[in-house]
Amino acid sequence: MTELNANNYISIAPLLKQLQSNSKVATADEIATAVGRIFEDRLSPVQCSTLLSLLWGTGRDREPLVLARCGQSMREAAAQVDRKALRNVIQTRGRKEGSYHGGFCDLVGTGGDNWSTFNVSTTASILASSLLLLSKHGNRSSSSTSGSADFLQAISPKGPVIEAVTAGVLPSIYEKSNYAFLFAPTFHPGMRHVAAIRKEMGIRTIFNLLGPLANPIEGSIEARVVGVFKEEMGPIFAEALKLSGARKGLVVCGVEQLDEISCAGRTNCWRLRERPNPAFRGPKTEEDEDFTTSDEEGEPRTLVDIDNFTLEPSDFGLQPHALSEVSPGKMPEENAELLMRLLRNELPRDHPVLEFVLLNTAALFAIAGICDADASNMGHGDDGKVIQDTGPGGLRWKEGVRRARWAVESGQALAPLERYIEASHAATGQ
After folding, report:
1. Rounded to a whole number, what is the distance in angstroms from the first to the last CA of the chain?
2. 381 and 410 Cβ atoms separated by less than 8 Å
3. Is the pLDDT of residue 2 over 60?
4. C-alpha dihedral sign at 78, 80, 83, 85
5. What is the C-alpha to C-alpha distance for residues 339 and 160, in angstroms, rounded to an integer?
6. In the beta sheet, which residues pair with residue 179?
7. 289-298 long-range contacts, Cβ below 8 Å, gap at least 24?
C-alpha cells in the first residue's frame, strides 16, 4: 500500500532503493510515475531531490525510454489545449506545400552548452512562421544571459505579454498569427513544486533535458528541430522523440557541443524520417481522420527511421563564421534590438548572426517538407526559382536558405511576430 505522511506526500522509498542498489530494476514507467508525482506536489523535498540525484547519477535519465515516458508525464500534467481547436487552426491556417501538411512546428534546444550565442532558435522560429505554424516552447534564462522569454519581452517599443498566452487563449492567438510562444511556467504550473529544490541542488537533473519533449501541444506537432548540448545526447534524443510518436524531426549538435546548427563548422545530425509501412492495411490517406502519432489497434500507417549525417555551412550555400562572431553574451535588450534590425532587413546579407539564423531556419523548412515542393509562390519578392540541389540526408538545405532570405527581405518574417504581440496584448484587454 502507498504510504502517506501528514503532508499527504507519497513515499517512493522502494523505488529509491532500487535505483541505489540496482538501477536497472526500476522500469521507465515506474520512474515516470514518480516524476509525475512531483507535478502534483506529492513528493517530499528530500525524496524529490534524492530521486533527481539518483536518476542523474545512474544515467537512467539519459535513456530514451525514460526520457520519453517522463516527457509524457510532464505533458499530461500540463495545462491542456483544446485539440479540436488546434485541428481547426491547421485546417484553416496551415499552408500545405511539398510534404508539409500544415501542422505545428517547433525549434528548441536543451540549453546548457555555455556558449551564450545570440538567441538563434527563437529568431529562427519567428522567421519560419512566415511559412509554417510555429509553437515555440520556451522559458527564461537558466544557462545564458538571454533566455527566449527574456529576449521576446525585451522587444521595443512593445514586446509580447507572454504570460497572457494560456492554454485557453492559445487557439485565438493562432486565429491572428502563425506564431505563438508557449511560456513554460504558464503551461507547466506543476514545475513550481520543484523550482526551489532544483535551485538549491545546483546540478543538472532530468528537467534540464525534458523541455524539448514537453511541448504542451505535442500531439499536434508535425516537425521540429531539437538542439542538444552534447553529441552523445543526439541519438538518445532522436530515439526518445521516436518513442514519443514524432514522425518528422532533426536532432542537432554542433561539434563545439553547441545546441544549434553551427555556423562555424560541422554539425552532427540525427533525422527522424517517415516512410510508408508495407504492413499497414488501413485507408490510403489521412483525409478526414483525427491527427494521431500512432495506431494502437494495428500496424501504424508509417514507420520512422533515424538517419545520421553531418552538415556544414557550405551545404546551405553559406560561408562559415566563428562562434565568437555570434556569441556576444549580451543582455536581452541588446539581443532584441539586433532581432528587430534583422527582421526589418537592416543587416548586411552576410552578417554572421543573420546567416546563423538563416541556416537554422532553413533546417526547419527542410525537415517540415516545404522545400520538397518543385514550385514556389510564397508571395511578393519570390522569384519562384526553386533550388532543387540536395545535400546530406537528401534534403534541399539551400532551398531552405532561399526561403528564409525571402522571409526577411519581403518583410514576411516580421509580420507574424507583430500580430502575435498584438494578440497577446488583446488577451489581457490592453
Report:
1. 52
2. yes
3. no
4. negative
5. 14
6. 134
7. 290/87, 291/87, 291/90, 291/103, 291/219, 291/220, 292/219, 293/219, 293/244, 293/245, 293/246, 293/247, 294/245
Closest CA relative to residue 178, chosen from 291, 90, 87: 90
The grid cell for 343 is 527582421
* Beta strand pairing call for 267-276 and 249-254: antiparallel
Give the Cα separation of 72 and 62 in Å (integer).
15
- Rg, the chain, Cα only: 21
Give CA angle at 77 (73, 82), nearest 5°. Answer: 115
* Closest to 239 in 3D by CA, of 272, 210, 274: 272
Helix 28-39 to helix 192-201 angle, to the nearest 10 degrees?
Answer: 110
Q: Return the C-alpha cell found at 199.
A: 535551485
Span 188-223, pLDDT tens digits = 999 999 999 999 999 999 999 999 999 999 999 999
What gap in Å lies between CA 311 and CA 266, rounded to an integer? 6
Per-residue pLDDT of 135-180, as tens digits, reads 999 998 765 567 899 999 999 999 999 999 999 999 999 999 999 9
How confident is the model over 249-272, as pLDDT tens digits? Answer: 999 999 999 999 999 999 999 999
HEC assignment per residue over the chain: CCCECCCCCECCHHHHHHHHHCCCCCCHHHHHHHHHHHHCCCCCHHHHHHHHHHHHHHCHHHCHHHHHHHHHHHHHCCCCCCHHHHHHHHHHHCCCECCECCCEEEEEECCCCCCCCCCHHHHHHHHHCCCCEEEEEECCCCCCCCCHHHHHHCCCCCCCCHHHCCCCCHHHHHCCCCEEEEEHHHHCHHHHHHHHHHHHHCCCCHHHCCHHHCCCCHHHEEEEEEECCCCCHHHHHHHHHHHCCCCCEEEEEECCCECCCCCCCCEEEEEEEEEECCCCCCCCCCCCCCCCCCCCCCCCCEEEEEEEEEECHHHHCCCCCCHHHCCCCCCHHHHHHHHHHHHCCCCCCCCHHHHHHHHHHHHHHHHHCHHHCCCCCCCCCCCCCCCCCCCHHHCCHHHHHHHHHHHHHHCCCHHHHHHHHHHHHHCCCC
Q: Average of pLDDT values for 114-124?
A: 87
